């Protein structure tokens, strides 16, 4: 019988080691007919967490009208409060899940997310809405940090490429579907943007409790380092705060520079503390994982690519509504083909990555995004010509997203020892959220008032920024190599 192996980081390199019995025997812990339901439950939860990063954007005008006197600055924290907490807590919860159990953290996160969504729908002011969004971000971090690890524990290794493809498709397509779904719901009320989460999150919580089997590191008896967790959380939170506030205060302002400097200092302290592990605490950062070149480059690719992806999502909606004069509903529906292509090619891309290697396929996906952005740069004009000017670029970008997201996830998974799956995938997810915050901040800084009242020429620098970011992500992806091949 052929010995199953996976690639694991050793001293910054990647070499073959046997897959531990815990992972091989996982397929016997679930009945075959249960696996598809496990995949559906986890994918639904991932879709919700990703959807709520972007669905709120399109509801801003309706929320502003409902809460008379609210400013755009205060409304921006309805999105930013969620993103910052989401990004900051992914890694700490990943470490905690490795210790106490991934199912426990996942199910608790779903319940928190559900209750906070209901509270957001009942919010009586912008301040209360922001507070409930922060709590919602805590739940999202809990479920996202454990989602891929739960799936890889449930399925045998030969099915991992398809599983990772579904996981990536759920997150990427849901994020891109935020505008069209939000446009439909806002026609009824902006509160439905949050109410739509309730049946899905409740269903995932109920079936998650019944179907999922817990997994953790059986040899780990320590608890996560509280000092390192606080430093990591504050570091990422302060950096994200500096990024999202930079357009208002200026990229060169003392406040922005101080925020980025303090955040980087806290992250540096976390790294230094993690290099000196204690017998009683788990280091916040796994230094050995960070030393694995494919793992580090996959996470960096995800961060840079999300700069382009988040800027494209918001920029596309602003162009439809501000330049072409589409209604919120029309803009949402016009954005549907791109997410559809991303969902389809996430499944195709995971299979191609298993044959040719994750790095080259992710790089090709980035090239598609570059082509789509350049198409918009050259073709988009002030007069609306959707089929000939917007749609081709949207299709190209959708194909690219579908090729990139599952392959960077597969590159991370293929370089992780099983006991660190939750932690490692949380590092990838945290990097993606930081990249999304940076992408939105850069886009707003480039557009300024043109985001609302500009013309097609004003958006040229946005499309160029997206193309440059995607090209840079593709160059980094090539360094990942052919990790993750199954043939």
- Which sheet architecture does the biggest sheet show? 2 strands, antiparallel
CATH class type: Mainly Alpha
Segments where pLDDT lies below 50 for 5+ residues?
Answer: 1-28
**Remind me, CATH topology?**
Growth Hormone, Chain: A
* SSE run: EEHHHHHHHHHHHEHHEHHHHHHHHH
Spatial strand arrangement across the major sheet: 1-2
Shape designation: globular
Strand % is: under 5%
Q: How much helical structure, as a percent, in the residues?
A: over 70%
The Rg value, from CA coordinates, equals 21 Å
Classify the secondary structure makeup into a structural class. Answer: mainly alpha
Number of domains: 1
Tally the beta strands. 4
Rounded average pLDDT: 82
The second-level CATH architecture is Up-down Bundle
> Distance between the terminal alpha carbons, to the nearest Å?
16 Å
The helix count comes to 22
**Can you identify the CATH superfamily?**
MFS general substrate transporter like domains
